[in-house]
Each structure stands twice: as C-alpha cells, then as structure tokens.
Recover the amino acids of this structure.
C-alpha cells in the first residue's frame, strides 16, 4: 500500500468529497507491493475475505522469507503451502515465529488468534493413510481461515463399514471434504449419505493405471451422486478455501 495515496484518500473522506463507501471500493483496488520477483497483494483480505497465501513449491527460501516478512508487516496471519522440510528449516531459522507442519507440508505465522467465522463444522474425510498429507492440507487451511474442523481418517471403500460407523460426524457437518486416491469412489458414497455440499479431492496416490490421480479425478467428475464439486489433483488447499467460503456464505 502506498502511504501517500492512502493519506490522500483519507483526507478526501474527511473533507466530505468521498464517502466511506466509495473509499472502501477504492481500497479494494489499491496497488500491490512489487518486490521484483513477486507482487504482494496486501488487500486480498479486503476483497476476498481471506489474505494472500504463499505457494511454497518452486520458490527459494529467500523468496518465501521476504514475502512472509512483507505480509507480516500488515499484521495478518500468514499461511505457506507446499513447503518441503529443507526449505522450511531455512524459513524457520530466519523467522522463528513460523511453525511448520511437516505432515500437511505447510507453515504458519500467526499474528493474532484465528477468529471462527464459519457457521458450522467442516468435516475432512480421508480415504487412506497415504492420502493424509492432502487431507491435512485441506483441514489446516480451513482451520486457519476460521472454521471448526473435524477429521475422519482411513475410511475408504475397501472397508466401507469404517465410514458407516461414523454417521454422527457426517450428519452434523456443514460441509464435507472427501480426499481419495486409487479409483476415487469415496466421494460418491459420502455424497449419497449427506444433505450438505461435498467437495471431492482426488489424490495422486495409486498404482500405474491411476495415472497420477487422473483416474480418481475422472471418477469424481462422473459421480452419480448429485451436487459433488471436484477440485484438482492433490489440491487440498483449494478444497479448504472452497469449504470455507461455502461455510461462511451459508452463515449470512
């Protein structure tokens, strides 16, 4: 944010030349901070209701550290996704307040307690233990955005009785995220049991004919259970954000 432009806008509001509503609209489109290698969007929370998130894969530790510092200047919580352990060690050494979750492959820097803004509970259902990294990415993302999250692990269709034993969790959820690899059948089963939005997340877990998650993706897109929404392969973050928006909107 440019302080001079902000000061000018505030002066216009004080003088009565710009209404508070007009000022709010202008703030939504104010310039980002250009670091050369990245353009940091400080106003995404104003426009979207959630701040910019750092995608860690493909970035150097130095780049992640600098972006985190700039976002942190805005006194906002920072989330870094797809962060490998080696890069995370460098980031945490430079920024001791950062906490790394190796299982979910993400890191956080919390400047203030997370405010619960979701109406109900987001339930993350995970088909198999091998799908847990993607499921945990979804769960932690939804938590950090401001949702109550419950987890249900290792309840895939190879032993479907394990899922049926947790009908209470399924029925009290406001949104269900279902993470599955292999043939990707679990979202269809869950979609036939609940009356709330289901977000399906295909994972790249599986043998050769799973084609790196493509088989699960196609199965979920062709589900016979109506109303299932599907995100991209291994996109736990996207599922967590989508569930948060659904949960937040339905509370209004």
């Amino acid at each position: 944010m440019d302080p001079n432009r902000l000061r000018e806008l505030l002066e216009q509001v004080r003088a009565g030349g710009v209404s508070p509503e007009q000022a709010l609209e202008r703030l939504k489109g104010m310039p980002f901070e250009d670091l050369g290698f990245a353009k940091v969007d400080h106003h995404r929370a104003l426009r979207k209701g959630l701040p910019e998130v750092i995608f860690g894969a493909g970035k150097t530790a130095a780049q992640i550290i600098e972006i985190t510092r700039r976002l942190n200047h805005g006194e906002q919580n920072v989330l870094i996704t797809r962060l490998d352990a080696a890069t995370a060690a460098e980031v945490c050494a430079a920024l001791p307040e950062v906490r790394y979750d190796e299982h979910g492959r993400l890191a956080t820097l919390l400047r203030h307690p997370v405010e619960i803004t979701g109406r109900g509970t987001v339930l993350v259902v995970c088909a198999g233990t091998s799908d847990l990294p993607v499921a945990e990415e979804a769960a932690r993302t939804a938590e950090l955005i401001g949702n109550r999250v419950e987890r249900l692990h290792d309840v895939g269709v190879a032993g479907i009785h394990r899922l049926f034993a947790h009908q209470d969790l399924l029925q009290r959820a406001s949104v269900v995220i279902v993470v599955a690899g292999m043939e990707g059948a679990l979202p269809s089963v869950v979609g036939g049991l609940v009356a709330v939005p289901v977000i399906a997340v295909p994972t790249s877990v599986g043998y050769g004919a799973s084609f790196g998650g493509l088989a699960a993706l196609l199965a979920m897109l062709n589900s016979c259970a109506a109303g299932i929404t599907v995100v991209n392969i291994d996109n736990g973050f996207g599922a967590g954000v989508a569930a948060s928006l659904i949960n937040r909107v339905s509370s209004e």
